[in-house]
Design brief:
Blueprint: H1 8-11, E1 20-23, H2 33-42, E2 47-50, H3 62-66, E3 70-75, H4 82-89, E4 94-97, H5 100-111, E5 116-119, H6 126-129, E6 133-136, E7 142-145, E8 151-154, E9 157-163, E10 167-178, E11 183-184, H7 193-199, E12 200-211, E13 230-233, H8 236-240, E14 246-249, E15 258-261
Parallel strand pairs: 1-2, 1-10, 2-3, 3-4, 10-12, 12-13
Antiparallel strand pairs: 5-9, 6-7, 8-9, 10-11, 14-15
């Protein structure tokens, strides 16, 4: 029952070329940085990534992306990641862009053993009709396009069939975890992490605070240990290493205004 492993390197030792990984996080919030760096250190390539976005700046999955280790991304947001956009448009990367809520439910469904479900999101668009560019040919043309999906009508409304997602591995980050793999996430870091963890056949969790079984109130558990196979305890320095993606402040002479984006408490 003790799922704690000695290091992140040990946790990812069986990740091989071509493996599929569901990765938690949103922007830079709740990203399993240590496990991603451990995967990078193995030298594996041809990875299939399922994640809301593919890192930001030089953090998170951007490390694997910049090194050319990722072959395919299933996600919902490219955003300001210029390297992601460049590789996609140059035909170096296959990308399946889907609505964010659909991505979340596809991960949850896969983890719950639900092979497919119907949703109204995307009906009447290329999401359902097909033709979205998955891979460009590097010269402005489309080399691989998305296929059409089944659409059915229920009670007078049209819905598109979406498949649940299962991956070989999942990488997630939690604020607290016990040796049985029960996890607790904090505020904005409780984003795609529980869903990614459910979707992985083998789930690896890095935890900022490791506690003994029984120290987490069962009512406070966000993800039961049944979904987690390996737990890595972070050092104090690793746990404190949290970046702000974009900080916006008010112009000089104004008060009480400003915004900080993508902050993990």
């Amino acid at each position: 029952m003790d799922k704690v492993v000695g290091s992140a390197a040990e946790a990812v030792a069986d990740v091989r070329d071509g493996a599929t990984l569901a990765v938690g996080g949103f922007g830079l919030s709740g990203v399993p940085e240590v496990l991603i760096q451990a995967v990078y250190a193995t030298g594996v390539s041809g990875l299939g990534i399922v994640s809301n976005n593919c890192g930001a700046m030089d953090r998170g999955l951007a490390v694997l992306l910049a090194a050319g280790r990722i072959a395919r991304v299933t996600g919902s947001y490219i955003g300001a990641n210029k390297e992601f956009a460049r590789r996609y448009l140059a035909g170096e990367l296959e990308v399946e862009l889907i609505p964010q809520g659909t991505l979340a439910e596809r991960l949850r469904a896969g983890g719950a053993g639900i092979p497919a479900f119907y949703t109204p999101a995307g009906v009447g668009t290329q999401v359902a009709d097909g033709g979205l560019p998955w891979r460009y040919d590097g010269a402005g043309g489309v080399a691989v396009a998305s296929p059409p999906k089944e659409v059915r009508e229920f009670d007078g409304c049209r819905y598109v069939l979406e498949r649940g997602i299962r991956t070989d591995f999942a990488l997630v980050r939690a604020a607290k975890g016990d040796r049985y793999g029960n996890l607790v996430f904090t505020r904005s870091a409780r984003n795609f992490n529980p869903l990614a963890a459910m979707a992985g056949r083998v789930t690896l969790a890095e935890v900022e605070q490791l506690v003994e079984p029984g120290e987490i109130d069962p009512d406070h558990v966000h993800l039961p240990g049944v979904f987690v196979q390996r737990v890595v305890e972070l050092t104090a320095q690793q746990a404190a290493d949290k970046q702000i993606e974009r900080r916006t402040v008010a112009a000089t002479g104004t008060q009480g205004r400003g915004r900080t984006d993508a902050v993990e408490p």
